[in-house]
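User: Sequence in, structure out. Go.
Assistant: Echoing your sequence, followed by the structure tokens.
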Amino acid sequence: MEEIETVREKLVNITLVADNSWDNVSKIMRRVDSKCIKTTHRINIFYGKNTQMLQNVCIKKGFTVFRRSTSNETYNSDIKNVLDYTKFCIIFHNFIEYNTISRSIIDLCELNCIPYFVISEHTGNYYFNGECINSKKFKNCVKEINYSVRNTIVSLEFNPFIYQQDCEIECKCKCECECECECECECECECECECECNCECNCEISVNSKNSIDKFNKNFMYLQELKKTNRTILIA
């Protein structure tokens, strides 16, 4: 029986995510520590802006890291495969990002009853399952969490790894043609407008739309390059 429990303990995963704007390494090092979490627990980290920062802390603290990739076509199932075998999540979040992976993981944890911690720069305490805890040490709270395999429901309407919170796409063409078409959605931006107009005017995308698309593509290419540079040391 002890051998079975030992095997289960070694297979336990913890998922670690952070805001895109998060840069407080000391906060991460304080919580991701062998004094709080057993080093037999494996750490899941999604590819993203903070992958290297989170990975460096985990390796320095002696944890095994699993870098998890996602695609724009299968991101829901990719996230589900991680959360199905996650004991709990640690989210470094300042409550200022709402369309990124940190906020999405919080929502998914609440939906699927997955234990989760939120570490914020706004308080020296921590949040556990949405409640601010100031009467119990972090490591004691971690010890009380029991792991159970679950069938997670993940149905996000957008890919949180490449979604731009400050997207300024204007779904309006600045065309100078003289056609009488009333459509304002015949642009090449990524806004997925559902207009049924068949106007064939050669209109141009507005400046704001072009800037937003460039920002979107730049972020996506960054993720692709990050995957390539880490491919040789990818664990899973």
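User: And one key feature?
Assistant: The chain has two domains: 2-161, 166-236.
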